[in-house]
Amino acid sequence: MSITIKDVEHVANLARLELSNEEKEQFTGQLNAILKYAEKLDGLDTDNVEPTSHVLPITNVMREDITRESLPIEKVLLNAPDEEDGQIKVPAVLE
Fold it and tell me: Which residues form the signal peptide (predicted)?
């Protein structure tokens, strides 16, 4: 597969880019070089390689979710700007 100037013009049009003829030639060459490099992967034997989503092993670093005593309501309400009936009172967000 190779990229033509028409392909570059099409992509530039989709991206709303205005390219000069020199830029079209340059991008055509660069994109074809990328594809040629990627074609080297076709020569690799990947039959016994397991698919991975990451190069390194990733583990969950979060702690276990353990229940514990909550703060007493009196202590919590000390930090509240206003309280009513044992609840934090906030300005209304709906009319």
Answer: none
Tokens of 1: 């597969």
Q: Whole-model pTM?
A: 0.49
Q: Domains of the chain by range and CATH?
A: 5-43 (1.10.20.60)
Query: Taking the CB of residue 31, how many other CB atoms lie within 10 A of it?
Result: 16
Q: For 32-37, what is the mean pLDDT?
A: 94
Whole-number CA gyration radius for the chain: 30
In whole angstroms, what is the distance from residue 87 CA to residue 80 CA? 9
pLDDT digits (tens, 9 = 90+) for 39-92: 988 888 888 888 888 888 878 878 888 999 999 998 999 989 899 998 999 888
